[in-house]
Amino acid sequence: MTSEFHLIQQYFKRPIKQTDLGIGDDAALIRVKEGHHLVVSADMSVVGAHFFADAAPEHIGWKSLAVNVSDMAAMGAVPNWVTLSIALPEMNETWLEAFSRGFFACAEAFNIDLIGGDTTKGPLNIAVQIMGEVPVGKAIKRSGAQVGDDIWVSGLLGSAALGLAHLLEKTKLPEAELEACLHALNLPQPRVALGLALREIATSCIDISDGLLADLGHILQASGVGATVHLEHIPCLDTMKPRVHELLVQQALLAGGDDYELCFTAPSHCREAVVAVSEALGLPLTRIGEVDVVPTLNVLHHGEPLKLNRLGYDHFA
Ligand code: ADP
Ligand code: MG
Questions:
Q1: Cα–Cα distance between 189 and 65 in angstroms, integer?
Q2: Over residues 258-271, mean pLDDT
Q3: pLDDT at residue 57 tops 60
Q4: What are phi and psi of 24, to 5 degrees?
Q5: Which of 100, 128, 188, 261 could form a disulfide with 11 if both were Cys (CB 3.0 to 4.6 A apart)?
Q6: What b/e string do you get for 30-69 counting C-beta neighbours within 10 Å, with b at 16 or more?
Q7: What is the pTM for the complete model shown?
Q8: Rounded to 5 degrees, what are φ and ψ at 49?
Q9: Residue 28 CA: which ligand is closest?
Q10: Could you report the per-residue pLDDT of 161-173, keeping only the tens digit for each?
């Protein structure tokens, strides 16, 4: 029987790179660079709500950290440190080994130290707190969108939601599409490099965790503006494009969560700068709409207003 101490030593203690004191004392010691804000965010992943009980532990490990890294990306911050508080129903070493492998794959990909946490017995629940840095005055907030700004999104939208719909047997995806959609659902790629590149360009930014309309809605509300979004411009898998008339696909694009792409606004005179960032990062950045003075969120499909309440999210209409 492995003790809690050994569990932490074996599965969670790794060399630290940017921390003065990490796992093993009553608290960790970190040092924030002069002239920087400490950027702090937390996200909990709960079995049944955020992942299935039988989900691959490696994926749970990656995603429980990745969704937090994504919040740093959205702020234009560099993620450095993370704590992990985990409730485990049982001491399952196979599960823990795979979970920590996924977690540290993400930590290493973004150069993040795990500096502490807590381990208890209970229904599977993973609480991650992430900390990063941003030079004072450089964070990208939700509140800066200006009338006339372009609205952009990174990557492709809707894939994770379609993957989830497949797992819930609401649709049956063809093999090739299924693979891409499950990858998007299980292994989201936080857009940290993009967030950094947008510090000097974007007027506002958010990561898409709850669906494009919901998350863009947060920007609009915080900024006191409205927007028009063009459905046919929303970037998605090529195989999804001919099906954009289907309700499920529209829902995935507009209301599907879990993509963890960035949605940001930028002045129209910055279009070339955004394209240059896209090329430098090898990441598609697509202009999907514009910020309006009338404080509503309108979705057009080839110029025709889309009846959003038909899609079941009339609270945005
Ligand atoms: P305390 O009783 O002082 O709170 P613990 O025995 O809970 O300390 O934890 C011992 C050390 O291990 C602490 O540094 C704590 O931050 C770290 N730790 C505990 N659980 C985890 C975990 N799941 N991931 C990373 N570090 C952990
Ligand atoms: Mg203590």
A1: 11
A2: 98
A3: yes
A4: 125, -15
A5: 100
A6: beeeeebbebebebebebeebbeeebbbbbbbbbbbbbbb
A7: 0.94
A8: -100, -45
A9: 1
A10: 999 999 999 999 9
74, 207 Cβ separation under 8 angstroms: yes
Residues sharing a CB contact under 8 Å with residue 43, sequence separation 6 or more, in sequence order: 64, 67, 68, 71, 127, 128, 130
Q: Which atom of ligand 1 is least distant from the CA of 114?
A: 25
Write out residues with Cβ below 6 Å of ligand 1: 8, 12, 23-26, 84, 86, 114, 116-119
Atom 2 of ligand 1: nearest residue by CA position: 26
Would you say 73 and 192 are in contact if contact means Cβ atoms under 8 Å apart? yes
| CA nearest ligand 1 atom 19, residue | 118
Residue in 23, 82, 95 to alter for ligand 1 test, most ligand atoms within 8 A of Cβ: 23
Instruction: Among the bound ligands, name the one nearest to the CA of residue 6.
Output: 1
CA 153 to each of CA 134, 194, 244: distance values in angstroms, whole numbers, following the listed order: 22, 11, 18
| Tokens standing for residue 264 | 């940001």
Band (132; pLDDT cuts 50, 70, 90): very high
**Separation of 82 CA from ligand 1 center, angstroms?**
12
Closest by alpha carbon to 55, among 185, 209, 169?
185
* 14-42 per-position pLDDT tens digit: 999 999 999 999 999 999 999 999 999 99
Average pLDDT over residues 243-252: 94
Please return the burial class of 289, using the count of CB atoms within 10 Å of its CB with bins 0-12, 13-18 and 19+.
buried
